[in-house]
Design brief:
The complex is a heterodimer. Chain A is of the alpha+beta class. Chain A has 3 domains: 1-25 and 50-85, OB fold (Dihydrolipoamide Acetyltransferase, E2P); 96-173, Nucleic acid-binding proteins (OB fold (Dihydrolipoamide Acetyltransferase, E2P), Beta Barrel); 179-254, 2-Layer Sandwich (Ribosomal Protein S8, Chain: A, domain 1). Chain A has helices at 30-40, 45-48, 185-191, 197-203, 225-237, 243-255, and strands spanning 6-7, 15-16, 21-23, 51-53, 57-59, 64-66, 70-75, 80-84, 97-106, 109-113, 120-123, 143-150, 158-160, 172-173, 179-182, 208-212, 217-222. Chain A is flat. By secondary structure, chain B is mainly alpha-helical. Chain B has a domain at 8-76. In chain B, 52% of the residues lie in helices and 5% in strands. Chain B has 6 helices and 2 strands. Classes of the chains: A alpha+beta, B mainly alpha. The A-B interface holds A 24, 48-55, 57-59, 64, 73, 75, 80, 82, 93-97, 145, 169-170, 189, 192-194, 199, 202-203, 206-214, 221-223 and B 38, 40-64, 67, 70, 74. Strand 4 (51-53) of chain A pairs parallel with strand 1 (41-43) of chain B, so a sheet runs across the interface. Chain A: It is found in: Cytoplasm; Nucleus, Nucleolus. Chain A: It holds the Pfam family RRP40_S1. Chain A: Belongs to the RRP40 family.
Chain lengths: 256, 148
């Protein structure tokens, strides 16, 4: 670590490279800190040093060490730093909702391809309302939307299609028809942002259904095949189109 | 090992020997104690915790009504507290009315379980309050011993 560290706050919004060290604001003497805590109350979270070290960052002796090249982002509420990097290959992470393709049925367990280094396993009891007698009707080649229960580098990833309270909340088998395609992970996160222009523009076009998996897979279904293909092309191209180009394309389409 | 018929003394000796052996072989870390610093940094590999991402299943213009309902439900999970507060305000009967109702209710149901004599007394009391007259002369009827 020959590079000198820089303050984390100064680098927010700028490109960082692996090996950069981010220095965090060091809290003052503990006694002063306690007094400040009593007065500030809830707002003292970040100043007390409770920090969330997101993807692309690791803890090191001096502060945070950058492990991925990208733009450094920061969120004030709860003090989170992370690196917004771009990649196409997905690494399973616990809690992520992904689209998986069933590749094999091995007794009580389905094997799903989620785009990672290993296939994920999904138990047939992990569906809503599934019992030993009442098995879900899943065949090889079906699409499943679920979340990771276990996902670390030492174990085979496991998926489930129910949440902690036992309800499916939208997860499970994805219906018939539709089109599945793969995009980069950064685009998925852009599309899932709270106010996404692309999604809002597309929703004005025609009725359709969309499932976004954090592993880079998108499934689209519209009324006709042509509409579906148009949506696929727009979503794939929106990674490199500017907002104006997109609006031009949509204007042409809605004019037709 | 447990041997039958071992005296308590020999047992103690054996235990002491075992302890000595164990304490010699006890491994301990020769490293200096790591300072408990920066225990407030939490490492997180998921983007969901950092960014506020929406739910992955979406439907537009009524293509799949169930998913549209789900979208509203999932994306407003953060605003659940507001919904709960609203429910409290929209009660059909206000708290004050309930209190008044219960006040009278307890009395009326209680009368049902009074004995006949007490009911008579209650009636007299009511009349007294209404008429505001002198207390009635008829006292509570008591058991009259039969004369021989």
């Amino acid at each position: 670590m020959s590079a000198r560290g820089e303050a984390a706050e100064s680098l927010v919004g700028r490109v960082v490279l692996p090996g950069d060290v981010l220095l965090l604001p060091v809290p003052a003497r503990p006694e002063e800190d306690e007094e400040r805590l009593l007065r500030l109350g809830a707002a003292a979270g970040p100043s007390r040093g409770r920090l969330l070290c997101g993807p692309g960052l690791r803890r090191c002796a001096a502060g945070l060490l950058v492990t991925k090249a990208g733009v450094l982002r920061h969120r004030a509420a709860g003090g989170a730093y992370w690196v917004d990097s771009q990649q196409r290959r997905y690494v399973p992470v616990k809690g992520d909702h992904v689209i998986g393709i069933v590749t094999a049925k091995a007794g009580d367990v389905f094997k799903l391809d989620v785009g990672g280094s290993e296939q994920a396993s999904l138990s047939y009891l992990a569906f809503e309302g599934a019992t030993k007698r009442n098995r879900p009707n899943v065949q090889v080649g079906d699409l499943i939307y679920g979340q990771f229960l276990v996902a670390n580098k030492d174990m085979e990833p496991e998926m489930v299609c129910i949440d902690s309270s036992g309800r499916s909340s939208g997860m499970g088998l994805i219906g018939q028809d539709g089109f599945l395609f793969k995009v980069s992970l950064g685009l998925i996160r852009k599309l899932l942002a709270p106010k996404c222009d692309i999604i809002q523009d597309l929703s004005q076009l025609y009725p359709f259904e969309l499932v976004l998996g954090m592993n880079g897979r998108i499934w689209v279904k519209a009324k006709t095949v042509q509409q579906t293909l148009i949506l696929v092309n727009i979503l794939e191209a929106s990674e490199y189109m500017t907002a104006e180009q997109r609006k031009q394309v949509l204007a042409k389409l809605s004019g037709n | 090992f447990m041997q039958r018929g071992l005296d308590s003394q020999t047992k103690k000796q054996l235990e002491e020997e075992e302890k000595k052996i164990i304490s010699d072989e006890h491994w301990y870390l020769d490293l200096p104690d790591l300072k408990e610093k920066e225990s407030f940094i939490i490492e997180e590999r998921s983007f969901m915790a950092c960014e506020d991402l929406l739910y992955g299943r979406m439907s537009f213009k009524g293509f799949n009504p169930e998913i549209e309902k789900l979208m509203i439900q999932m994306n407003s999970k953060g605003k659940e507290e507001e919904i709960k507060v609203d429910d409290k305000m929209e009660a059909d009967v206000s708290d004050e009315e309930m209190a008044r109702r219960y006040e009278t209710l307890v009395g009326t149901i209680g009368k049902k379980f009074l004995r006949k004599r007490d009911q008579r007394v209650l009636q007299d009391e009511d009349e007294d309050r209404n008429s505001n007259a002198t207390p009635s002369k008829t006292a509570k009827k008591q058991f009259l011993k039969p004369k021989d």
